[in-house]
Design a protein that fits this description.
Elements: E1 3-6, H1 13-16, H2 18-39, E2 43-46, H3 59-73, E3 78-81
Parallel strand pairs: 1-2, 2-3
Helix pairs in contact: 2-3
């Protein structure tokens, strides 16, 4: 069984920079998704830090990530997600305050 591991995508970085999102999309279009298909990979592990802000999500970044990452993963297989340091609301606890 082959798996893909991806990490530290930081959607919404640099105040939701279009330049960064265009670069991410180029990677997905030319490298990541073609490699999944070519290699027959159906298990993806996202190691966290998918979004750049731990205190909130920019709706534009959320929409972009849904359309260009999550929706494209739908139907490929299984996605396992780990919580990264930037995903947590607080550094010392998992509790929502």
């Amino acid at each position: 069984m082959k798996i893909a591991i991806i990490t530290d995508q930081h959607f919404g970085c640099r105040k939701n920079s279009k330049l960064f999102h265009d670069y991410f999309l180029k990677f997905y279009d030319e490298v990541f998704f073609p490699a999944l298909e070519k290699e027959g990979i159906t298990t993806i592990i996202d190691m966290g830090d998918t979004f750049d802000s731990r205190k909130g999500i920019d709706f534009s970044a959320l929409t972009w990530s849904k359309e260009n990452y999550f929706d494209r993963l739908n139907g490929i297989g299984s996605l396992w997600y780990c919580t990264g340091a930037w995903t947590l609301a607080w550094r010392v606890t998992l509790a929502v305050q």
